[in-house]
Amino acid sequence: MEVPRSRPIDQKRIQGLYDRAGTPLESADIWYLHSTLCQCFLPYKDPKTDSWERRNGDFSIAIVAGHVRDPRSDTLTRRVGLPYGPKPRLFQAYVCMRAIKSQSSTVEVQNSMSDMMHALGLSVTGGKNGTIPMFKEQIIRYASCHFTLIGPGPKGSYRHIKTSPVKRFDVFFPTNPQEQSLWPSEIQLTSDYYESLRDHAVPFDFRALKPIQAKPRAIDIYLWLTQRLCRIDERKPLLLKWRELYQMFGGELVFRNFKIKFPQDLMAARMSYSAARIEETEEGFIFRASPPPIPRILAAVE
C-alpha cells in the first residue's frame, strides 16, 4: 500500500517543531497577549456586518466597527468594518508584546513597519494587492473598533465593561488613489487596557505561531491552550463537548462543517504546542493539565 505523502504545510510545521526543540528559547521569542484575548476571539472571515459577538463560558465579547475620516468619502466619516482573519490577531499580539517589553502604553508602528511584518512571519510587498495595504486595512479596523467585555459580576449579575484597547491612533489617506497609503505613526493603548494587560499578560512562544500564521482558528486554539491547560487540576481534566467548542471556535461555520474543520485546526495548533495533553472522545475533547509553553520562571524573568 502506498503511504500518502505529507503536505508541504505539514512538513513546514514538523520542521518548525524540530527547530524549536533544538533551539534555546530567547527573550525575543517570548511574546504576550491579554488573557481575555486568549479566550474570546475576533471573526475568522469578514462578517460583512458592523457588530460581532462571541461567548466562552461565562465570558463574552461584543465588537462594533468604528469610523474614520476619509477625504475620499462623500460623508464626514465612514465605518471601516470589523477586523477579521489572522492579521489583526498577529497585530494585537505584537502590540501587547511591545507594550509589555517597553513598559509603555504607546507603541510605534510606522517606523518599524517592515520589521514588524517580518517578525510576524509575513512577506512585505507593496502595490494594490500587496501585503502592506491589506495589513494596514486590518490595523485600521482593529484600532477603530469598540469592545464590550462581559463576565460574572457581584451577586450573580453580569458585569459589562466597555473598553477599547486603542485610545489614539493617527492615520492618513492620500487624496491620489495611486499614492501608497501611509501607516499610523503610533498607537496608544487606553490606560485601563494597558494596566489590565500588565496584570493579565499571557506569555507564549512566538516561534510557534509562524507555522500557523495563516490559520486564524489554529492561532486561537493555540493561544487558548497556552493559558488554559496550565490551570487545569491534575485530578479534574476538562471535557469540552462539541457544542461548547462550537460556541468558542465555530465562527461562520455551520455545526456539521465545524466538526470536520476543528480537529484539523486543533492538530495544527498541537504541532505548535507539543506538550499539550488532549484526547478526542465521541462527546468532544478532554483537555488535561499540561506545562505552559513558557516556563513560569522564564516568564517572570522576562
Structural account:
35% of the residues lie in helices and 21% in strands. By secondary structure, it is of the alpha+beta class. The chain has one domain (8-301). The strands form five sheets. A four-stranded antiparallel β-sheet has the order 2-3-7-8. Strands 6-10-9 form a three-stranded antiparallel β-sheet. The chain starts with 7 loop residues before the first helix and ends with a helix. The model is unreliable at 1-6 (pLDDT under 50).
Estimated radius of gyration = 20 Å
Q: How would you describe the shape? A: globular
Number of helices: 9
Q: In this structure, how is the largest beta sheet organized?
A: 4 strands, antiparallel
How many strand units?
Answer: 14
Poorly predicted regions: 1-6
Task: Find the structural class using helix and strand composition.
Answer: alpha+beta
Helix content: 25-40%
Compute the number of structural domains.
Answer: 1
